[in-house]
Amino acid sequence: MTEDPQACERRPDHQVRIGQGPRNRRELMVKTLWIGVWLIFLSSPVHDLTSGRHTTGGTVAGALGLTAFVVTYLSLVFRHMGRPFSPRVVVSMLAVLAVLAPLLAYTLGPAWLGLFVYLSVACGATLPVGAAYWAIPSTGVVMYLVGRHWDQKPDDSLVLVVLIGFAMVGVGQLVRTTVELRKARATVAQLAANEERLRLARDLHDLLGHSLSLITLKSELAGRMLPGHPDKAAQQVADIEHVSRQALVDVREAVTGYRRPRFAAELAGAQVALTAAGVVAEVPAEPDLDGVPEESESALAWALREAITNVVRHSGADKCLVQLTHRQTLDGAMLELSVEDSGSGGDGGGPGNGLIGLTERLEKAGGTLEAGRIKHGFRLVARVPSAPGRDVGSGA
Question: Cα 219–220–226 angle (5° rounding)?
Fold first, then answer.
């Protein structure tokens, strides 16, 4: 769990994001492979071109038409999944496919009817739902008519074209929903940050508004009293010092409260982070923190944040178990946090800066930290006092 952060940034994520373009070479290969598998329906046209059934001109024209069809199809489907084209460009590219598919199948033979599969897929993946509902059956009708030209009877291929098209409508909806959900999450995060700024501004205004007004008033009084009543002016200056010191204390307490993480919030964030990273997470729903000192809760929250960060970035795990347990030890009541994952735990080069800093933070709160490999992964255990005072050696 001590892997170099820069190396972790270079490592590709385990999950390929839906509805977004590839971020690295691995995602590009995965998406290309996924789309390339469906090019199996081109085997019949390619075999027909190489069979020698056509004239030289017909073979060249068929090869050029097939190349144009495949390039247009891949550009439309592959690019549209990550960075959608404008509606005008989508319609133009679909028009190219809609012309090439029946033209090639009508002139070169029934072996080219497989192109209608790609036309149906493109319609389902890129068109709005309402437009796709009539475009896909229309594709099937055109395929049927072209097949009748070659005395081809309707068979399972016609049903396959329609079903695949409607299946791609669902995939397109999933992609669009995922993109919208991602945008909504970003908006919610931005709104939450803005709300936090407003709350901090309100709190600081409430804390400092009265104090600064009082300091201003007493400063004016001290200035007027200074020539004739230096003793009274000195009293006003002393009051100013007292008010300013109290204001400084209030601001420090407010800032400390904002910087101190809460365990419940970190637990919710851990669930979101693990799920987003594709890690199967088992996290306690409602932690029992009644009577736990704020310092202990804060230290435990930092421990959870560090552990989840290591699981997501460094471990390569696919499962993570988070447990929170109250234990009675010789040193008193302790609250134990255990984070166990199924990953490798990093490069094993010794404790990193994160774990060292976390150990120091827990020691200041009276707690301890244990971290190391287990049989099937890595486990981090943090313990903090669960009560303000300890009863050491009381025999309780």
Answer: 85
Strand partners, 339: 322, 380
Encoded amino acid at 119, one letter: L
Quote the strand ranges of the chain, DSSP E: 280-282, 319-329, 332-341, 368-374, 377-385
Q: Could you tell me the pTM of the whole model?
A: 0.47
Task: List, in order, residues 6 or more apart from 87 with CB less than 8 Å away.
Answer: none
Under DSSP, the state recorded for 89 is H
- CA 165, chain centre distance (Å): 29
Backbone angles phi, psi at 159, to 5 degrees: -65, -40
Q: Cβ distance 374 to 340 under 8 Å?
A: yes
Contact assessment for residue 62 and residue 42, using Cβ atoms and an 8 Å cutoff: no
Residue 42, beta-bridge partner list: none
Report the C-alpha gap between 116 and 122 in whole angstroms: 10
Q: CB of 152 within 8 A of CB of 113? A: yes
Question: How buried is residue 148: exposed, middle or buried, by Cβ count under 10 Å (0-12/13-18/19+)?
Answer: exposed
What is the full per-residue pLDDT of the chain (396 aa) written as tens digits? 434 434 343 334 444 455 555 556 666 677 667 666 667 778 888 888 888 888 888 889 999 999 999 889 888 876 655 566 788 888 899 999 999 999 998 998 888 888 898 899 888 888 888 888 899 999 988 988 888 888 776 566 778 888 888 888 888 788 778 778 878 887 887 887 788 778 777 777 777 777 787 788 888 888 888 778 888 888 888 888 888 888 887 777 666 655 566 788 888 888 888 887 788 888 887 777 878 888 888 888 888 988 888 888 877 888 899 999 888 888 788 899 999 998 876 555 445 567 888 888 888 888 999 988 888 889 999 999 988 764 433 333
Q: How far apart are CA 29 and CA 61, in angstroms?
A: 31
